[in-house]
Each structure stands twice: as structure tokens, then as C-alpha cells.
């Protein structure tokens, strides 16, 4: 359950004030404001409180040593960093993406950690949209390692485009990479996990899987669809021995932006993303690996203020809609693109 101590304590303060009948509102507001400054300004937050707790007190990543983990989208960014982190912990790996060259470099980095040997990392080039190769790729994994413990569905592409301008062909292509291909491969793995009596599917969602990310309608819809598919698997087969982890990162430094879909299939993104206020792929991968080691069902990985948006949206959806309607759209886009909004504000004020 996504519980942040701030909201719990704030709730207790309000209830306490009401029950005790003290001069309620003013003192409650003061305590909550102090807590809010502590939680969101003084203490740097990078993830939800549950994940934070498990990083401090849960199983270490090394618990996964010897297991076989297949990561799709492992040639760069979060997937590549996750492969290296897991290799360091002695996890045997299958790494997939389209770029064989990128994968070979990631394999070299994995072996260089000293946690695994050459034969412990299988480079399996795969375009996820080539559905006809999913079963044979899966068979290759099983014949190489004899088992699969965790499938990490991480391959994906983002988008920047205005809602009204997006061609339906783009919607379809984006869903192909981000949803249908991933579900096709997961179905093969989950059938195997059911037969085996255990297994784990981890899915890289996004803030866009929880909220409506501006200029990314098809991408947002694709990440929401993943929650729909996997929450249904959870309710259909809860307790069946197959764990599901939904990992929802906010802005992360990676190659994602440069490979964005736009509103037309043949149109490339023109802007550059200014990686100012983002979590590094390595830090995201560390928290991702902790999620795997502790089989957490859903995690949020992001800096503030985006992290707070997750909480407000989860617990106060009506307020979130109101807040979103109030905040200028340019500000939301800056947050989305990982700009340091506080710094830009100061610069703007100085210029004035
Ligand atoms: N970076 C962020 O801010 C952020 C935030 C939230 C969620 N995410 C999610 O994190 C995941 C990883 O993204 P990233 O940030 O690490 O970006 P990235 O560096 O661009 O990595 C994307 C990976 O997906 C692979 N890929 C793309 N299309 C593919 C296809 N058709 N078949 C197989 N592999 C394919 C890419 O490899 P090839 O090009 O070699 O195939 C690459 O390895 C994505 O699902 C993304 O939506 C990212």
C-alpha cells in the first residue's frame, strides 16, 4: 500500500485535534505545515515511503544472487543500469533490445562488475514488436539457463505531441511497443511461471501510468493500459505464486527523450531535453532492484515535487484535478521534462 508517513501523521493530527477539541484548525495547520516542510523540503525524497523503508530495512539486492532475470530494453538507460546493478549482485541475466552493439557493451559492463562471468549474461537481440519471435526467444532463454525467475518488461518509447494532432498510426505503433508486445511476451512467461509454481513479472510503467502527462497522450494511455492488464492478472490469479511489480519512475536521465514518438510516424523530436532535475538511471536502477528483491507490488521513483503529485492523486483525486486545472500548463511541462522549476523561477525573478 502506498502510504507516506506525512499523510498518516497529518491525518492523526487532524483527528486528534478534533477529538480533543483544542483550538483545532490553527494548531493543526501549523503542525501539518511544519511536517510538510520537513517531508518535502528538508528531507530529500526519491521514492515512495514503502520503497524507502524497504531500502533501509528490507532484503538487499544480493538476495537475488543466482536467479535468472530477463530484462527487455536493456541496451541503454534504466534497463542497462539495472542489468549492471543486478550483475554486481551475482544475478544471471538475459538482456534484450534491438541494438546488439549496445547490448554487448552492457554485457561487458556487467562482467566488469565481477559479480558474473561471461556465460552468465546472455545477449538476446529482439525487436519486441516481432511477436513471432517471442516463443523462440523464450525457449532460447530456458535452454541456456534452464530456468527464468524474473521477467522485467522495460522496453518502451515515449512521446511529445499535442493531443489533437496525433495520427492514429502513432497511437497504434506506440501501443505496439509499449503494450501489446510486452503483454505477448509476458503471457508466455506467466504460463511458464504458473507451471513452475513461482515467478515474478516487473513492468516499467511511469508517472504517466498514474496521471495524465501533458503532450504524451498515447504514451500515457499505453502506461495506463499496462496497469489495467497487470492489475487484472493480479486479481485473476492473486496468490497463485506469481508476483507482479509495477515500477513508476518520474523523470529519469536516459535516452528516452531523443527516441520519442511525436504526432506523425516519420516526424522526429526537435527539442533537446534539459536533464536538470532528474534521477540518474543508476539510482533508479538501484531502487528498481530493491523492488525486485522485496517483491513490492507498486513503487514510485521520483524527485519532488512530482512525487507529491502521485500522493495527492492517489489520496485526493478530486483535489488533484483542481490543482492541475490551476497550475499553468508551461509549469507542468517543465516538471514533465525534468526542469528545475524552482531554479528557473529564481532566474526569471532575477531577470525581472
Ligand atoms: N526516462 C524517463 O524519464 C522514464 C520515466 C518513466 C518511465 N520510463 C520508462 O522506462 C523504460 C526504459 O526507458 P529509458 O528511460 O531507459 O529509455 P531508453 O534509454 O530510451 O531505453 C529504452 C530501451 O527500450 C528499447 N527499445 C525501444 N524500442 C524497442 C523495441 N521495439 N524492441 C526492443 N527494445 C526496444 C531500447 O533499445 P533499442 O533501441 O536498442 O531497441 C532501449 O534499450 C521505458 O519503458 C520508459 O517508458 C522512463
UniProtKB/TrEMBL annotation:
Translocase found in the keyword field: no
Please name the GO terms of the biological process aspect recorded for this protein, alphabetically: lipid metabolic process
Query: InterPro entries per the record?
Result: KR_dom, NAD(P)-bd_dom_sf, Sc_DH/Rdtase_CS, SDR_fam, SDR_family_member_7
Give one GO molecular function term: oxidoreductase activity
Could you list the residue ranges forming a coiled coil in this record?
none
Report the residue ranges that make up the Ketoreductase domain in this protein: 67-255
**What stretches pass through the bilayer?**
6-38
Q: Which UniProt keywords apply?
A: Membrane, Oxidoreductase, Transmembrane, Transmembrane helix
One of the Pfam families matching this protein, by short name: adh_short
The molecule here is called Ketoreductase domain-containing protein
| Source organism per UniProt | Petrolisthes manimaculis
- Recall the taxonomic lineage recorded for the source organism: Eukaryota, Metazoa, Ecdysozoa, Arthropoda, Crustacea
